[in-house]
Amino acid sequence: FQKAHYAADRISKLEGYSVVSDSPFFHEFVVRCPRPVSEINETLLDLGFLGGYDLEKDYPTLKDQMLVAVTEMVSSEEIDAFSTALKEAGND
User: Fold this and answer.
1) Which of 31, 50, 87, 90 has the fewest CB atoms within 10 Å, i.e. is most exposed?
2) Rounded distance, CA 16 to CA 33, Å?
3) What SS3 state is found at 81?
4) Backbone angles phi, psi at 77, to 5 degrees
5) Which parts of the chain have pLDDT scores under 70?
């Protein structure tokens, strides 16, 4: 719970990104991205990160939105590095 909320807070501060949250969440949350998720995930993979699930694949109305999951096994340092990679991926 705490790590997921830490990640959501970090990501929500990135230019072009926002966390879509109508209700409380535990390990998973939705992020609206500044570019298509497929492009962001490609860049993330090049940077050594597995990106979020592209929700548009199953829900066409959720364009440029990814599902991100964070568990207690992920360190704060890894979350920080993922946030930095997301920032770079959003600017490509």
Assistant:
1) 50
2) 6
3) helix
4) -65, -40
5) 92
pLDDT score, position 23: 80
Give the closest residue to 18 by CA, choosing from 2, 5, 6, 34.
34
* Tokens 């600017």 found at: 91
Burial of residue 23, with CB atoms counted within 10 A of its CB: 0-12 exposed, 13-18 middle, 19 or more buried: exposed
* Residue 32 near residue 42, CB atoms below 8 Å: no
Cβ neighbourhood burial of 52 (10 Å; 0-12, 13-18, 19+):
buried
Residue matched to tokens 């990679």: 85
User: Residue 14 and residue 87: Cα distance in Å, rounded?
Assistant: 6
In the block, residue with structure tokens 């991926």: 89
